[in-house]
Amino acid sequence: MKKLIIICCLLGAISFSVSCIDSKLENTEVKLVTAEEMQSILELEDAQLVDVRTPKEHEEVRIANSQNIDFQSPTFDEDITKLDKAKPVILYCKGGNRSAKCAKKLKDAGFEKIYDLEGGISKWKHSDKIKIEVKS
């Protein structure tokens, strides 16, 4: 009887430790952020700001200091490998759809901190909360 109790305790401890490991791997969440929150993250952390729209869209209007990685590009999966998985990534697109899909890909690729600009650049381009660059 004692052996049975010991075996049950060991199995319980093993399953608990395995579930903790699994939860750490899946703990990455994509956080929707406002323009103000995005600015704070950019100021406080060494974050990577990524515009996932097309190069043409990025050229016409963009958030200052953003880099462009086109979500619809056939080389997208290869392009995101150039980002640092340990540094926070802030994503944006026009309205939020592409950046949400991109965030899932980054999560699956093992990125640790992922932020998505709520509503995309369309929601914030007339706001004084972020610096927008427009092609003249």
Beta-strand fraction estimate: 15-25%
The largest pleated sheet is described as: 5 strands, parallel
State the separation between the terminal residues, measured CA to CA. 81 Å
Kindly state the percentage of residues in helix. 40-55%
Q: Can you give the mean pLDDT? A: 85
Which CATH-level-2 architecture?
3-Layer(aba) Sandwich
Radius of gyration of CA atoms, rounded to a whole number: 20 Å
Helix segment tally: 6
Report the count of strand segments: 7
SSE sequence, one letter per element: HEHEHEEHEHEHE
Widest sheet, order of strands:
1-6-5-2-4
Instruction: Note the overall shape.
Output: elongated
CATH superfamily annotation: Rhodanese-like domain
- Quaternary structure: single chain
CATH topology annotation:
Oxidized Rhodanese, domain 1
Number of domains: 1
Main structural class? alpha/beta
Give the class-level CATH name.
Alpha Beta
Low-pLDDT parts are: 16-25
Explain the overall architecture:
- This protein has 136 residues and is α/β, with parallel strands linked by helices.
- It has one domain (28-134): Oxidized Rhodanese, domain 1, CATH 3.40.250.10.
- It has six helices and seven strands, in the order H-E-H-E-H-E-E-H-E-H-E-H-E.
- It has helices at 2-25, 35-44, 55-60, 76-79, 97-108, 120-124; strands at 30-33, 48-51, 61-63, 67-68, 89-92, 114-117, 132-134.
- A five-stranded parallel beta sheet has the order 1-6-5-2-4. A two-stranded antiparallel ribbon has the order 3-7.
- Strand 5 (89-92), helix 5 and strand 6 form a beta-alpha-beta unit.
- The protein is elongated and about 80 Å long.
- It starts with a helix and ends with a strand.
